[in-house]
Amino acid sequence: MTEISKTPEYRAVIDDLVKICRDTAHFGYANVVRKGVWNRNATSPEFDRDQYAFNQLLSRLAPADRETIARMLVEQSTGAVFETLKVLEFHAVEPFKDGYEGSSFHDFIGRLGDWEWPE
After folding, report:
1. What was the pLDDT predicted at 1?
2. Is residue 48 part of a domain?
């Protein structure tokens, strides 16, 4: 089996994507949902009908329900990165056409799980 070697930039891109997904879980839209206010400025439908409706929905939900939606947003964010890496591999875009664990999207999932980069 051929040993895969990747550039430091490849590792940095994967690690940055992992960081974005982790930050989404704690600081991004998921955290906004947990707090129960999507947009503090959307206090009436005249501001923005959708933003106001999001605020209204979140204000009616119990904290446990908001937490469920927050986790859905985190999974969606992670899934979007995963699918993007699959597309880059499908189109043989360097350096994402393969990875240490078979595919770059496998490396991404591994790094999300605190897998260490090979030496």
Report:
1. 43
2. yes
